[in-house]
Design goal:
161 residues; mainly alpha; 5 helices; elongated; DUF2269_transmembrane; DUF2269 family protein; transmembrane helix; membrane; transmembrane
């Protein structure tokens, strides 16, 4: 039986620590993403929608921070285990992450801003049709982000190819 050298043990420990941070970052980022549609689907009035949108704006940093950590630790894990860069599931996970990043860092915040701006100009408590139209686009983006996150989790757990 071959003994592990000190640097091999240290490298293994680094991998475990990075994997732990990677998992915590995934829970933080994906947990927030999953909650977006749940929060927004409960808004029935202008006041409720304003509150829900402000809440989404306040929690928008969770998927951003979690996503950045997820990406960096994922790459770091790849550099520690360079064979990962030859695994299709790993490469597809990175591509999916970039799709989620475009949605959550660019497209979705713009939709939230449009919705909030529209609601601030709305008199009364009935949600206007223009809001509902923008909200549908936002819900569609949230659905894509959730599906992408789900597929990414499947790829990382089952490593099908």
């Amino acid at each position: 039986m071959e003994k592990k050298g000190h640097s091999q043990i240290r490298g293994h420990n680094m991998y475990i620590y990075l994997l732990f941070i990677h998992i915590i970052a995934a829970v933080t980022a994906i947990g927030a993403i999953i909650c977006y549609p749940l929060i927004m689907s409960s808004a029935r009035t202008v006041g409720q929608a304003k509150f829900a949108l402000v809440l989404l704006q306040k929690t928008a940093n969770l998927p951003k921070i979690g996503g950045i950590l997820l990406f960096l630790t994922g790459l770091a894990l790849g550099f520690l285990e360079t064979d990962l860069f030859h695994e299709l599931w790993y490469l597809i996970s990175i591509a999916i992450f970039l799709i989620i990043l475009v949605i959550l860092a660019g497209l979705h915040p713009a939709c939230i801003k449009q919705q909030l701006t529209l609601l601030l100009q709305t008199q009364g408590d009935d949600l206007p049709d223009a809001y509902r139209l923008i909200r549908r686009r936002s819900a569609w983006l949230e659905g894509i982000a959730n599906l992408a996150a789900f597929i990414s989790i499947l790829l990382m757990v089952f490593k099908p190819f």
